[in-house]
Specification:
Number of strands: 4
Number of helices: 4
Radius of gyration: 15 Å
Low-confidence stretches: none
Strand content: 5-15%
Shape: globular
Strand order of the largest sheet: 1-2
Distance between the termini: 15 Å
Largest sheet: 2 strands, parallel
Mean pLDDT: 92
Amino acid sequence: SSGINAEYGGIGYTTALNIASHNPSLLIIAGRSKDKLTAAENDIKKLHPLVNFRQLIINLSSIASVRNAANEVLNYPETTIDIFINNAGMNVPSHTLSVDGIELHFATNHIGHFLFTNLILPKLKVAALKNPTGSTRIIN
């Protein structure tokens, strides 16, 4: 899955669209395809032109890509992430291995999410200390 896909209006896209309607200070959208992220951002901006976007390229089936994306997020100037949603997923009809030798479905839908969430946890913890109790969220 590419995470956000305006063409098909999937869960990632409609979630980003809904969040944009609440005028967040920053909306980070993530996926494997820069073109799809740009299309989604442009589409959402038509309805919510004041929302500030940042695109994050990540391939959840690759541990190196997950680590690189997490490092990028940790180096963002913003000190907190208030809400983090793990949404991307894929279904692989035949036994296929990731570049790391992990079954592709498991690597993408489980290992990638787990690793990325744990790597960016410092920014979520800072948000949890600053925000009202229970308002910082990780959604799987």
